[in-house]
Amino acid sequence: MSKKILGIDLGTGSLGMSLRNPELGDNIQDQLEWFSVTTFNSGTGTNQTGEYSLAAERRSHVQSRRLKEHSRWKRWSTLALLLEYDMCPIRKESLDKWRTYDKSKGMKRAFPIDDTSFIQWLRMDFNGDGISDCTAFQLRRDLVEKQFDFTIPINRYKLGRAIYHIALHRGFKSSKGETLAEQEEDEKNDTVVNADNLEKALIASEEDRKKELSDYMDSHGFITVGQAFASLEGEGKRIRDSRYQAIRKQNTDEINEYFIFQEGLASYKDLHERLISTKKGVGTLFYKLPLRPQKGHIGKCTFEKSKQRCPVSHPEYEKYRAWSFINNIKYREREDGVWVELPLTLKQELYREVFSSKVRKDFAFESVRKFIEKQLGLTLKNADGVKTINYKDNILVAGCPVTARLQNIAKLCDATIDNLKIQGLKTRPIHATKPCNEKHQVTYDALDLWHFCFEAEEIEDVKRFAKQSLRFNGDATDCLCKLWTSIEQGYTTLSLKALRNINCFLEYGLKTSDAIFLAKVPYITGEKDIEKIINLYHEKVKIPVEESQRIARIANKLIADYKSLALDERFAEHDFNYQLQKEDKEDIVRCIQSTDSSFELMDADEQQTLITEVSRLYQAFFADKSYTILLWFRILLATKTIPTIWVLLKLVPYVIRLYYAPSMHFARMSTSCWTKVSILKKLALLLRPQESTMTLTNDGLSINTTKNVKMRTGKSKRF
């Protein structure tokens, strides 16, 4: 039976296959028994301009359909309101047939083309002669220039037709996201949009749109948009897609003018309120549907896999960001001195006075340095070759603008951000095991204010909430509006639960890595005393580990210096019984002095202990046979010498030992997950020796407590 070869060529848009029989000939073309090529769609579309994304095209169609759907909802709700006040001649059955869709009942939306009176109303043929009586803008002009008797149905229909026309063209309204996007795209604009001028930028964005129309209205003495557009129509100018644009506030003012000018509308106050309202369930013309929620697209926390990520504007994240930076600041009194961290009391004052007291997105490190100099009475510098502080003055530091805004609101309420309690006007039923009719007054704290501003889409909603629900005065309302403008979009990589656990340790001055490492210990062990955990961690874990790392670092330096020698200069080569000589011990002392700057500050006993430990590791390096065996094995491979089977069998145990359990000449303290597991094991047993049981598995470490809580580390890398 002959051997055949199957060739497969996998491409991004094709699949090629061939079957060769080498016995059919020496030429590859003759050997081919069968071949085939299958092509696939590329996944992109092609037009005259080139390729385009099919997904982007589908998304644009979806957006277009949603806009049209929202426009239909606005029309239906406006017609239902006008029908309620007998301002539209459409029949209720026709409206229900137009806006109702029920696939199970076979009901499809159908425009009421058979409703003759409604069609005439749309054409503004109010007398039924088949000819439009006027244009929509002319009708809107008449409503602010002539008095109408609204007891006559035809006059009510005229008012309803003008309102329906405004509903179809309610005007432009700027939003927070659109304004920021315009400012980012405008390369000629050098103004930075921040919390203080964002509200002005929102107004300026609308002013730019209506400038041409406003100038035209001022020059002709018009008070409504309908008057101006009717005049432009009379001049033969096209209204749509022209340079004259109206904003939503101008159309709202026009409706207000109807109810002010027309004496017959005095009894329609409820209609007036429903027309201009923007509340859900009340407003029709100017109600804006909220944006589709994107919470399902938010990623998960790096540590808490079941928790969603926290917004970057949350006060807890600002605290995490500020304390992470503060705990990294180091200084020294003189240039050749020892680097030390800031005292905890100074760190707390720095966070309170510099980071969270002023509203600023970022600031230069110079202000931090000056504050530290003032508190310590020192002169610190990081320039011109002099380095007594570990950051330069021009480094930008992230501030806490949202926290500062909340503190400003708390000051107006004679409180702090931690104990802020605002009694609102709303009442809610009391949560009780038994049904009761009692209600309690809703209370808002600082995080409630942040959450409302984070969810609010329009600044008018914030103002209404401040005045109606919180009973704020003008200054407090302005502060809440500035808080809304300070909210940034985006999410961190950590959840709110993880941030709170980490911040508990950051506020005690721990580095970010240590705080993350200990963040879950209170929950695992049940120990709530943070100071006790930190003291135990420093005493039993951190200080011994750092001391071992320092000793290993010095020993590694000596070993590296030895390996850097030429082969003919290496002493004690292959001498496993070599003992350190006087010259070696002098080298150890010199290496310690050059590597560890704190050696001179130690007392005699500490210096001798350090020298002894380094000597022990250095001596173990010379007594380690596995290093020589590995070096000899590498020489055999480099010279392409074929060793005998006996030699290979002798080398296998040493190679396995080197691969799975590195020998003493790699005298480094491991910072892998297993070292952290051993530290957690020691901490758990020290905090709760009778309540913790630990099991080591291939997937990591499982710590079981009496609370039936499990913490996994290792491959899963859980928080």
List keywords for this structure.
about 725 residues; 3-stranded antiparallel beta sheet; disordered C terminus; extended; 27 helices; mainly alpha
What do these coordinates show?
The chain is mainly alpha-helical and 719 residues long. Helix content is 49%, strand content 11%. It is built from 27 helices and 18 strands. The strands form 8 sheets. It has a 3-stranded antiparallel beta sheet with strand order 1-2-3. A 3-stranded antiparallel beta sheet has the order 16-17-18, with helices on one face. A two-stranded antiparallel ribbon has the order 4-5. Strand 4 (44-47) and strand 5 (50-53) form a beta hairpin. Helix 12 (315-326) packs parallel to helix 19. It is extended and about 120 Å long. The protein starts with a strand and ends in a 5-residue tail after the last strand. The relative contact order is 0.05. Mean pLDDT is 81; it is low at 180-196, 638-649, 654-675 and 689-719.
Shape, please?
extended
Class based on secondary structure composition and strand pairing: mainly alpha
Rounded mean pLDDT is 81
- Radius of gyration, taken over Cα atoms and rounded to an integer in Å: 39 Å
Output the strand order for the largest sheet: 1-2-3
Structure summary, number of beta strands: 18
N- to C-terminal separation? Answer: 61 Å
Report the sheet-strand fraction: 5-15%
Helix fraction by DSSP (H/I, runs of at least 4): 40-55%
Low-pLDDT residue intervals, each spanning 5 or more residues: 180-196, 638-649, 654-675, 689-719
Major sheet attributes: 3 strands, antiparallel
Count every helix, treating DSSP H or I runs of 4 or more residues as helices.
27
